[in-house]
Design brief:
T-fold; binds magnesium ion; about 350 residues; globular; binds adenosine-5'-diphosphate; alpha+beta
C-alpha cells in the first residue's frame, strides 16, 4: 500500500531521476579555435561553446570587430584614420572613428603616466629605423643604422603634447607638419579587449583572444580549470617558455627585444624606441604585464620597457600591475602579485 510518506519518497526519486537526466542531456562544452592575419600579425580566437555554429558566429563577430579596427589604424591604407591624421599633420583636424578616438585618448594617457616614455607620436622615428621592413625575409636590404643627425631631426617631431584632440567633434590634429602617430605599441591590447567584449555579447562565456604578444582570457576551460598562458624565453626558440601563468579574466602583454630586431657589430637594435634618445631602449629583454585590461597592459609594457628597470618598476607598482621582467643580463624579477599565478614546474602538463 502506498501511504503519503512513500508517495513523497517516490516523488523525490522521480525528481532526482529527471534532474540527472536533464544534466546528462546538457550538450558537451568544446573548444573551438580560428586564426586570421590582421593588424599585421596572426590573431587567434579560441572559445568554449556547446555548439559549433554558436562558436563560429561569435568568432566571426569578434574578427569583424578587429577587422574594423585594422581598417581605421592601418598605415598601409591611405583611407585609414591614422593615414589621414598623418597626412593632415600641421594642416587640419581629421574626424575619426570611435575606436581611433578611444585608442588615441588611451595612448595619450599612457604617455602622460609614463612621462613620455610611451609616445604615440613615435611614427617619424619608427619610419626612419624601418626595422619592420628591414627584417622581412624578402627585404634584400642590409641593416643600416640611421645617421645621428637624421635621428635628431625626427626627434623634434615626437611629442604627444602636440596631439590636439577635439572632444566635441571626435577629431584629431597633429600640431606640426612632419609628425606621425603610430599606435603599434597599444592597438593590439585594445583589439583584444574589444574582441573579448564582442565574444561575450555573442553569448560566449569563456575563451582567449590572442594578438601575437597581447592576449586576453575570460572564463574557464571546459574542465573548469584556468587558461594557461606561456611567457617566451627571450633568447630561446619560439616554443621555449620561461614561465606558465594560470589565468582567469585577465590580459597579458609582452614587449620584447626579440621580435623585430637586427644586429650590427654585436649590438642588437630592436623596435621599441626611446623617445628621449631616438635609439632602441636598453635595460630589458622583455617586459610582461598582467592586468584586467589589454589597453593598459599593452600601452604600459612598451612604456615600462622604455623607462628601464628602476623607473619601470616604479610605474608598475604605482599602477598596481603584475609584472614579469627579464633584464638585459637575462636575470628575472617577478612582482609578488604575479607569483601566485605562476604554474609550478611539476603541474605544467
Ligand atoms: P609588440 O608590437 O611587439 O607586441 P609593443 O607593444 O612594445 O610590442 O609595441 C612595439 C611597437 O610600438 C613598435 O613596433 C612601434 O610601432 C611602437 N613603438 C616603439 N617605441 C614606442 C614608444 N616609445 N612609444 C610608443 N610606441 C612605440
Ligand atoms: Mg605595447
Amino acid at each position: 500500500m502506498l501511504n503519503i510518506a512513500s508517495i513523497k519518497k517516490l516523488q523525490i526519486i522521480l525528481i532526482l531521476i529527471l534532474l540527472i537526466n536533464s544534466c546528462s542531456r546538457q550538450p558537451e562544452q568544446k573548444i573551438y579555435k580560428k586564426f586570421r592575419i590582421l593588424m599585421d600579425t596572426i590573431i587567434t580566437i579560441t572559445v568554449v561553446s556547446p555548439s559549433e555554429k554558436e562558436a563560429e558566429t561569435a568568432i566571426n563577430n569578434a574578427f569583424s570587430v578587429i577587422e574594423r579596427l585594422d581598417k581605421s589604424l592601418s598605415s598601409f591604407s591611405p583611407d585609414s584614420d591614422v593615414s589621414k591624421i598623418n597626412h593632415s599633420a600641421g594642416i587640419d583636424f581629421v574626424k575619426v572613428s570611435t575606436d581611433t578616438y578611444q585608442l588615441i585618448n588611451a595612448a595619450i594617457k599612457s604617455a602622460q603616466i609614463s612621462d613620455g616614455a610611451f609616445d604615440p607620436t613615435i611614427g617619424p622615428l619608427v619610419n626612419l629605423w624601418d626595422i619592420a621592413d628591414i627584417i622581412k625575409p624578402d627585404a634584400h636590404i642590409s641593416p643600416k643604422l640611421p645617421a645621428l643627425n637624421k635621428i635628431k631631426e625626427k626627434l623634434m617631431f615626437v611629442n604627444y603634447k602636440d596631439i590636439i584632440v577635439d572632444d566635441h567633434d571626435m577629431s584629431i590634429k597633429l600640431r606640426k607638419k612632419g609628425m606621425a602617430i603610430d599606435l603599434g605599441g597599444i592597438a593590439k591590447g585594445y583589439a583584444a579587449d574589444k574582441a573579448v567584449a564582442a565574444l561575450k555579447a555573442s553569448g560566449i562565456k569563456s575563451g582567449i583572444v590572442s594578438c601575437a604578444g597581447d592576449l586576453k582570457v575570460f572564463g574557464n576551460k571546459p574542465d573548469n580549470s584556468n587558461w594557461l598562458v606561456g611567457i617566451r624565453a627571450p633568447r630561446g626558440k619560439l616554443d621555449d617558455l620561461i614561465a606558465v601563468l594560470s589565468l582567469k579574466d585577465l590580459a597579458v602583454s609582452t614587449s620584447g627585444d626579440y621580435e623585430r630586431f637586427f644586429i650590427i657589430n654585436g649590438i642588437r637594435y630592436h623596435h621599441i624606441l626611446d623617445p628621449k634618445t631616438g635609439y632602441p631602449a636598453n635595460g630589458f629583454q622583455s617586459v610582461t604585464l598582467v592586468n584586467e585590461q589589454g589597453i593598459i597592459t599593452d600601452g604600459l609594457d612598451t612604456a615600462v620597457f622604455v623607462l628601464g628597470p628602476k623607473k619601470g618598476l616604479e610605474l608598475v607598482n604605482k599602477m598596481g600591475l603584475m609584472a614579469y621582467f627579464v633584464y638585459s643580463d637575462g636575470s628575472i624579477y617577478i612582482t609578488d602579485n604575479l607569483k601566485k599565478l605562476i604554474v609550478p614546474n611539476d603541474k605544467k602538463n
